[in-house]
Specification:
The structure holds three protein chains of three kinds.
Chain A lengths: L1 H40 L10 H13 L1 H34 L1 H14 L8 H8 L3 H25 L3 H9 L4 H12 L1 H25 L5 H10 L3 H26 L3 H5 L4
Chain B lengths: L9 H23 L10 H14 L2 H32 L1 H15 L7 H8 L3 H25 L3 H9 L4 H39 L4 H10 L3 H29 L4
Helix pairs in contact in B: 2-10, 3-4, 3-6, 3-8, 4-6, 5-6, 6-8, 8-9, 8-10, 9-10
Chain C lengths: L22 E14 L2 E14 L3 E5 L6 H8 L7 E6 L2 E2 L7 E4 L11 H11 L4 H14 L15 H14 L4 E5 L7 H18 L2 E6 L2 H7 L2 E5 L6 E6 L14 H35 L1
Parallel strand pairs in C: 3-8, 3-9, 6-7, 7-8
Antiparallel strand pairs in C: 1-2, 1-4, 4-5, 9-10
Helix pairs in contact in C: 2-3, 2-4, 3-4, 6-7
The chains are: A mainly alpha, B mainly alpha, C alpha/beta.
């Protein structure tokens, strides 16, 4: 009896995984087929739903176009600086609020309640302060990613196993040694999660600002496609943007979980 | 925010006190000319503008408009989100295929597609509602799924021991047990929806509160813009706190 | 050794008999209080004792008697309200170079291998890499974990993790080793085996050791003297000299003399523990009444 069980169990598993894969392929196929049908039928205003071929062609053209990469660079640069500024400030503020109970209780509620608000409405103020060039977009991205990172870091500080801090103190570690050898390694999960979230909202904040007022960047290209009613190009841009956003997220995930044993040790 | 704080009201005082002092400082610095009053308006002016906004700009009507959009999006979210969640729970194979995709969707920047929605639905409230709905759908679905599958095994066994059929099991045990999680999902969804709704109102210059900010900014009404932004932030915070209270009130059912 | 009633070590005037006249650790009239919602509570109330070089002193008491508080104050992680702690005459005001601590909870760094964990204190004092890894390997071998240097704590059992924590503190080469219920979370068999290991290490290194425990068998098996604490507020109830012959093994658990020591400590503890239970029941009653 045991023999046959062992024989059937693995194949049952294979069957299950195969079914999932098949179902996914089926879903994708149905979606694409429906899309093409709607495109061909002319139900909606022309080009609102372009044919798959048109989208594919636009995608190829886009990726082959040098100017696209200039714009991509512009956005990437803005997002990068935004993460540095917003993330750096967030890290600092999070460390302080997490370390000091009084300050934490006094100021963390601000972060907590200001977090889930529409940041894009600050854009007019950013333009007033920083002008119409890249700095206002960077400021938008920085504001967006500051909150999740600060909150993650503050929470991370508090969830550090207190005995690990006692160990450091019992061995008379200096303050910088405590920070580098104990606090930071103990917080790598919250920091990475905060960074992932932060990157996502930084991209949103920056690109949205670009759609509102800019002459460079992916956001600009998107709104430009809208204004010139170049729908296939808009779809192509959106596809690229989403692919990059999901890719960046996955990359961070890969880097943080790159040492599987570390991932196991969420004991801190 | 775990261990009880015994410092009394000190943290709250410190927090609010710092904010008030910052405002007073701003007022003084601007009056002294240290900060350009054409970039940062006097806080006192901003406060006065609130009244102006209410009287002249129909801010309350706009608030209702935004609220209405949020409400419609919310209803759609609840109905569609819960239905899809329940469906996925019923059909495990479908769930296995789709759950990770939906989770990926949740972290995708859906609001960036607003120009697309503009094309499809035009510059109207429909666009705004649809974006709010689409961006906020994943958490509702995921939380519904989580709530339904997280029902403690023993509760299901109790139901089966009483020979409840599938439908009874669902309505009398699974769904009630899942309600707290489902509510968390709806709350999350509503918050995302509100954020995206106000954001898109601003971006496409149509609608209620978001459009007002855009309007005032284009008119270079500095103190008005700041006042409108503050108003929206306040509304946002109130909504967040309110839903938090309701969630906490619902929790004891658990 | 001077002739003395083996079961008690308290002179009529209350003074503590010293193992030899040159104590390496002295605790004088130590007092530590805490603020609770019900008002200030004295956790440690005028505790005095001393530890001689090379001695193994066990501190035993019921739950809530302030043992861990004592541990933290002597280790310098927490400040005394009154009294002082001195190492070779030098007052302790913060973690002291001569004192090494092994904590009760899981304290290995999850992101470091066993070897890296043990090398930590050497890293802190700035020892060069090759030398400190070498030293760390030595202490890993000492606690019997050779072969496991490159394992992460998540891959080790609870007992092994505590051994890593112990090796890490030993690598610090403290004059005084303090351990706070290091075996509390382990099963009985692992406990006995680790107890043997600790005995062996102490004998090999002639390590001065202060062990906080609530396990009587452990206390009598491992130590030269046992300090019994009262229930809160924690005071010294009795100090008993365990003059069982050394070197000892876990086999000693079955001897008559061992049984007598255990019985004496047990009756002391039972008295204190029942006071503890009455106290918590009174608290419970009060909480119920105020609801």
């Amino acid at each position: 009896m045991a023999q046959t069980d062992r024989l059937t169990a693995p194949t049952a598993l294979n069957l299950a995984t195969n079914s999932v894969v098949l179902l996914r392929l089926a879903i994708v196929a149905i979606v694409l087929a429906t899309w093409q049908a709607v495109a061909d039928s002319g139900l909606l205003f022309r080009d609102v739903v372009p044919s798959l071929v048109a989208i594919f062609r636009a995608l190829v053209n886009l990726l082959a176009d040098d100017r696209f990469y200039t714009h991509l660079e512009a956005t990437a640069f803005e997002v990068g600086i935004a993460m540095l500024v917003g993330g750096g400030l967030g890290l600092l503020v999070g460390l302080v609020l997490g370390a000091n109970r009084l300050l934490g209780k006094a100021f963390e509620p601000y972060l907590y309640y200001l977090g889930p608000t529409p940041k894009i409405i600050f854009f007019p103020v950013m333009i007033m302060w920083f002008g119409v060039g890249p700095p206002s977009k960077i400021a938008m991205g920085a504001i967006s990613c500051f909150f999740p990172i600060a909150l993650s870091v503050a929470a991370g500080m508090r969830q550090i196993n207190p005995v690990l801090i006692s160990v450091g103190r019992s061995f008379r570690a200096a303050a910088w040694q405590m920070a580098v050898k104990i606090y930071l390694p103990a917080m790598r999960h919250p920091i990475v999660n905060g960074a992932r979230l932060g990157l996502g909202v930084a991209i949103i904040g920056t690109v949205l600002a670009e759609t509102k007022l800019s002459n460079r960047g992916i956001g600009f290209l998107i709104i430009n496609s809208y204004n010139t009613f170049n729908m296939p190009r808009m779809y192509a841009l959106l596809i690229v943007l989403f692919a990059l956003a999901i890719g960046a997220n996955a990359a961070i995930g890969r880097v943080s979980g790159s040492k599987p044993r570390h991932r196991l040790a969420g004991l801190s | 925010m775990t261990r009880t704080w015994r410092g009394g009201a000190l943290p709250a005082l410190l927090g609010i006190g710092t904010f008030v002092i910052a405002l007073v400082l701003m007022e003084l610095l601007i009056r002294a000319g240290a900060i350009n009053r054409f970039i940062v308006p006097l806080p006192s002016q901003v406060l006065l503008s609130f009244w102006r906004l209410i009287a002249e700009e129909n801010i309350l009507d706009r608030f209702l408009l935004t609220g209405g959009e949020a409400l419609v999006a919310g209803v759609l979210l609840t109905v569609v989100g819960m239905s899809v969640g329940i469906l996925l729970h019923r059909i495990p194979l479908l769930r296995q295929a789709c759950e990770t995709w939906i989770a990926a969707f949740a972290s995708a920047p859906i609001v960036l597609m607003y120009p697309l929605f503009l094309v499809i639905f035009g510059r109207s409230a429909v666009t705004i509602i649809m974006i709010g709905f689409t961006a906020a759908l994943p958490p509702v679905i995921l939380k519904t799924l989580e709530g339904l599958s997280g029902t403690r095994r023993v509760l299901i066994d109790v139901g089966r021991s009483f020979n409840l059929n599938h439908s009874q099991l669902f309505w009398k045990i699974l769904l009630p047990a899942a309600l707290p999680a489902i509510f968390v999902g709806i709350r999350l969804g509503m918050i995302f929806a509100l954020i995206n709704i106000v954001g898109v109102e601003f971006l496409i210059n149509f609608g209620g509160l978001g459009q007002l900010i855009n309007d005032l900014a284009e008119r270079y009404d500095l103190s008005g813009t700041y006042a409108a932004i503050s108003f929206v932030i306040l509304v946002s915070i109130c909504f967040f706190v309110l839903t938090e209270r309701v969630e906490r009130w619902l929790r004891p059912i658990d | 050794m001077p002739a003395v009633d083996p079961l008690t070590d308290q002179r009529p005037d209350g003074a503590v008999r010293l193992y030899n006249a040159d104590p390496i650790l002295t605790v004088d009239d130590l007092v530590k209080r805490f603020q609770t919602p019900d008002g200030p509570v004295t956790a440690v109330d005028r505790v005095s004792f001393s530890v001689a070089r090379g001695e193994f002193l066990a501190v035993i008491g019921p739950s809530g008697c302030g043992k861990s508080t004592l541990f933290n104050v002597i280790g310098g992680l927490s400040a005394a309200d009154e009294g002082r702690v001195a190492v070779s005459g030098e007052t302790v005001a913060g973690p002291h170079r001569a004192i090494g601590m092994v904590f009760q909870e899981e304290s290995t760094f999850p992101w470091r291998t066993a070897l890296e964990n043990v090398a930590f204190p050497l890293e802190v004092v700035g020892m060069p890499k090759a030398e400190r890894l070498d030293r760390a390997r030595h202490f890993i071998r000492l606690v019997g974990l050779d072969g496991f240097e490159r394992h992460y704590p998540a891959e080790l059992s609870g007992g092994m993790r505590q051994r890593v924590a112990m090796a890490r503190t030993l690598a610090f080469e403290p004059t005084i080793l303090m351990m706070d219920e290091p075996f509390a979370a382990l099963d009985e068999q692992t406990r006995l085996l680790l107890g043997d290991k600790v005995l062996q290490i102490q004998q090999d290194l002639q390590q001065t050791t202060l062990l906080i425990t609530h396990n009587i068998t452990e206390a009598v098996q491992l130590s030269d003297r046992v300090l019994v604490m009262t229930y809160r507020p924690g005071r010294v109830k009795r100090i008993i000299t365990i003059d069982l012959p050394r070197p000892r093994t876990s086999a000693i658990v079955s001897s008559d003399a061992f049984g007598r020591f255990v019985a004496q400590i047990w009756s002391d503890l039972r008295e204190e523990a029942s006071r503890g239970i009455q106290d918590s029941e009174a608290h419970l009653g009060r909480d119920e009444a105020t609801r």
